[in-house]
Design goal:
Strand order of the largest sheet: 1-2-3-4
Protein name: Hut operon positive regulatory protein
Helix content: 25-40%
Structural class: alpha+beta
Largest sheet: 4 strands, antiparallel
Pfam family, one: HutP
Subunit structure: Homohexamer.
CATH architecture: 3-Layer(aba) Sandwich
Organism: Ureibacillus sinduriensis BLB-1 = JCM 15800
CATH superfamily: Hut operon regulatory protein HutP
Oligomer: single chain
GO molecular function: mRNA binding
Low-confidence stretches: none
Length: 147
């Protein structure tokens, strides 16, 4: 059940998100037979961030929208990543904060044994702060869950 060093799903989700050359990274992920999507979202509402990431993952085939367990796994990975962004308080607009985020969703098996099954990772990077231009700072979050 060893976790393979070159298949660390969280590391790859962050690298995909922050990569200046995402095409090269996507080629590597294709070789692993992993699925991915990226996007951007800005909002004062956490539920809009969740919805944007879920919609992108469903539309691109990263998760099957007809299987509850896949949507459920993605939801928990998103909430875990949002915990990192918001420092443990998944609140944005209710505490007068707004986010401008890029995201990456990655699905694959990080283990050497294929029977371990797929996991999903969500990485978020961007800014958070008061809804006043120039009153924000950088932030990053990562969430990983088994499917």
């Amino acid at each position: 059940m060893a976790l393979s060093n070159d298949r660390r799903i969280g590391k790859h989700a962050i690298l995909l998100l922050l990569s200046d050359d995402s095409d090269e990274h996507l080629e590597w992920l294709k070789q692993l037979n992993w699925k991915s999507c990226t996007g951007k979202v800005g909002s004062m509402d956490a539920h809009k961030v969740v919805a944007a990431i879920e919609t992108a993952a469903k539309k691109t085939g990263v998760i099957n929208p007809d299987l509850y367990r896949e949507s459920h796994a993605l939801y928990h990975a998103i909430i875990e990543a949002l915990n990192g962004i918001t420092r443990g308080q998944v609140q944005i607009g209710s505490v007068l904060r707004t986010v401008g985020l890029s995201f990456a969703v990655l699905r694959g098996n990080p283990y050497e044994n294929e029977h371990e099954g797929d996991w999903v990772a969500v990485s978020l990077y961007g800014t958070i702060g008061a809804p006043v231009k120039g009153s924000e700072h950088e932030t990053i979050g990562l969430g990983i869950n088994h499917i």
